[in-house]
Amino acid sequence: MMALVLLISTFAFSLTNGINLQDFSWQLEKIPRIVKEKTFFLGTPKFEASAKLELSGVCGIECQRTLPVPRWSDLKDLLSYETVFENGTRTLTEVGILGVEPDSPVNTTTKVLPRRKRQVYGTDSRFSISDTRFLTNFPFNTAVKISTGCSGILISPKHVLTAAHCVHDGKDYIKGSKKLRVGLLKLKSKGSGKRRRGAKRSKREVPEVKDDEDDSKLQKRGSGSRAGRKQKTSVLKERKSERKPSFQWTRVKSTQIPKGWIRDVTGDVAVDYDYAVLELKRPHKKKYMDLGISPNSKMIPGSMIHFSGYDADRAGQLVYRFCSISDESNDLFYQYCDAEPGSTGSGIYLRLKEPNKKKWKRKIIAIYSGHQWVDVNGEQQDYNVAVRITPLKYAQICLWIGNNDNCVQG
């Protein structure tokens, strides 16, 4: 029933905007291939940088309008990457790019809504997820907590996608990243905390396939009248399980960040490259979310994006939110989703139709970089920004997670 309501509302939106419903599907693109060329050993990082959950002095949306088109040699340099291992050793890998013309499209910006201020805009529209039916099932169980204070999202059985500044400030790796850990929420069972092999699933645990509509349900509950906002928390707490979720922490085996994030290359931190992939020491058994190429906001129903993370002002709680995109460039989404420090690094996802199928599928199309201040004509302005997954970034992440052969189309 809920899927039908969502379909009707999507159809109504498409009619009012003159867009056919079939347009709201994943558009398959041929993905370039990034290949390793040379790898060099670098000195051991100092791990002395301080963690910063807000960036300042970065190139914002106005600045991006004036950026020159990157040269082919620049792209190869920006997409080369560092790998730091748990024992402190570090390497630099230079890459080659295959399958695309050596001309990058000009940075463009589409303005949709006027800029506003603050990280929470007006009435706080975030949902604190406390019901284990949501917490432990897809898509919410893909959200993870990073020991440096950020969030991330599972993208393979052994890999987590997060923001680069959660582990590196542009000059050095931050304190605590040498012994980086990732926390995955799991239920504590009665007694030993583990379910016996072959034991039947508890009635309180709903199979993932049945919870595939969870964020859509939350969106419907939160998009009604203002009078209904007070019911958000109570609705999510209904049928509260006796078993309490807790974090199971896993050590990180290696961390990879693009060279474009490092100040030696750009002269400053480049928000376009604020993403990193963490390889876990042990694989998890949770369902993870696939990557997708970030579409133009006009190809997104309502320009609506979703993400979940561990906001610092709601300790120990998974927080879900959704909002519309306000501005965009080739590499960034600008939006006003209510968010606080701690949600940085969350995976932003969409739910669109699979090509030539009736099924809907979620994919990660951006990484939430956080609340950021920029200097515009001598004045400080702020916004919440997300790094879009472009075809080149998609290819780079595929290389990092060892999935190059399957990343042919996004």
UniProtKB/TrEMBL annotation:
Its main location: secreted. One of its GO terms (cellular component) is extracellular region. Residues 136-200 form the Peptidase S1 domain. It comes from the Eukaryota. Residues 189-248 are annotated as: Disordered. Residues 189-203 have a biased composition (Basic residues). It is found in: Secreted. Residues 235-245 have a biased composition (Basic and acidic residues). Residues 1-18 form the signal peptide. Keywords: Glycoprotein, Hydrolase, Protease, Secreted, Serine protease homolog, Signal. GO terms for biological process: proteolysis. PANTHER family: INACTIVE SERINE PROTEASE 35, SERINE PROTEASE. Belongs to the peptidase S1 family. Snake venom subfamily. This is Inactive serine protease 35. The lineage of its organism: Eukaryota, Metazoa, Chordata, Craniata, Vertebrata.
